[in-house]
Design a protein that fits this description.
Layout (H helix, E strand, L loop, with lengths): L1 H31 L45 E8 L2 E8 L2 E8 L5 E7 L4
Antiparallel strand pairs: 1-2, 2-3, 3-4
Amino acid sequence: MRVIKILVAFMGVLIVAGVALVVYGVSRQEDGGIVTDDAMPSVPVAGQVDASSGLDPKPVAQLAPFGTINIDLAPGETLVDFSRQGSEATVRLEGRQGSRLVVVSLRDGTILGQILLVEPQ
């Protein structure tokens, strides 16, 4: 009986320590999202970097105007999501036949390919 009491007390200590670690981790995550004035990005996102930032003031490559890109939609298909990375864009479309991702080059407006998202049968 004494061994069981010791095990229960030990597990109680482990539970309290685990909850404390979770609270500590959540509080650290919330503080990580705060941007201060002295924070400096490691890589510039877009545009030109000014000399006061401490980074090399070379212009960053910007995306040239790409005009209009037509993506053929199937009947009943709608745009769900759009994301861009570099000179490529990914368009997520959903319709009756399922979902698909269309990858588009923003340099020349061509459709690089598509990924069909189908459920197993």
